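TODO from last week: model [histone H3]-lysine(4) N-trimethyltransferase.
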Amino acid sequence: ERFASPGKGSGLRSRRRVRPGELLYRAEPFAYVVTKEQLGGVCERCLRRNEHLHRCSQCKVAKYCGKSCQKEAWLDHKQECRCLKSVEPNFPPDSVRLAGRIVFKLLRQSVCLSERLYSFSDLQSNTEQLSEEMKDGLRHLAQTLQLYLKMEIQDASHLPPVIDFFQIFTKVWSCDSAVEN
């Protein structure tokens, strides 16, 4: 069950005894990217290692096990593909690619099984706990994201309020730092 944890956000707890190692929940992530270091070594869809991957004929960045993985990934990759082509020969940081996929998913109002527990809007940004230096770094990433998405989103001011580039980075950073701690 979900529960509020004052000062820490929300949490999950089991309402029954759990055995060590027992799987409690499994779902596709809301959004993910293959890191720059792993590109070309794993399928962008299923994340399996494979030496004989087929690359996207458009962006030439994304690689897949085969046609089925490529078709399954197309909804998430289609807009990203155009953005990757538009910034060639530059390549965006992993965090910018991830934030881009989050934006596209939010715009599609796509529902993911993982959102049965939490939706992206449920995540807290904890902006007030960030140093000014960290905020400046995240603002820079938000500007980089805006440039990266220019091919798909010409005017970010017309986006729904839920899609705030800076807030997306604060939420992703908060999740990442919580997992590391």
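Done. Residues 132 and 138 are 10 Å apart (CA to CA).
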